[in-house]
Amino acid sequence: MFGNKAGLLSSLYEEAVRLFVARLAAIHPTDNPANDVIRLGLAYRDYAVANPYLYAVLFSDRTVRCRSESDRPREVVEAYRPLVDAVRRGQRAGQFSSASAPEVIALSVWGTAHGLVSLVLSGNEPSELAVADCYERTLRALVAGWREEGRVPAFVDVT
Known about the structure:
Elements: H1 5-25, H2 33-50, H3 52-59, H4 75-92, H5 102-121, H6 131-145
Helix pairs in contact: 1-2, 1-3, 1-4, 2-3, 2-4, 2-5, 2-6, 4-5, 5-6
Keywords: Transcription, Transcription regulation
Protein name: TetR-like C-terminal domain-containing protein
Pfam families: TetR_C_33
């Protein structure tokens, strides 16, 4: 049906991407782009928890699925686009600093969501703590941190 193991993995990857893109695309933009960023982060987590095996296929070693960069489905870029668009809208609305490119802010949100979700799904979540208890709050703190242009909190030593 799939030709070989590579064909099976490729089909699984394409399905994982399709469902992931659809889940993020279901988060319709509102007049509060900063909140939309949070909602996208929550949708990211919901997809991963509901589809842990497809999430693993989606974010596992790409060399297993794709021999070259050109083999990567364009849909992967589409999964990231709603987040970048929300940040860009937030910058225009004054909700995010314009000192950084929207892609940089979006990447920080994506990386934070990915890291927390990966801790849970890999079984590396600290036993005395629950990521679920701090996930949304962490996203909100990250979004708040990107609001102040050029301002670094006093407790951070950047030297």
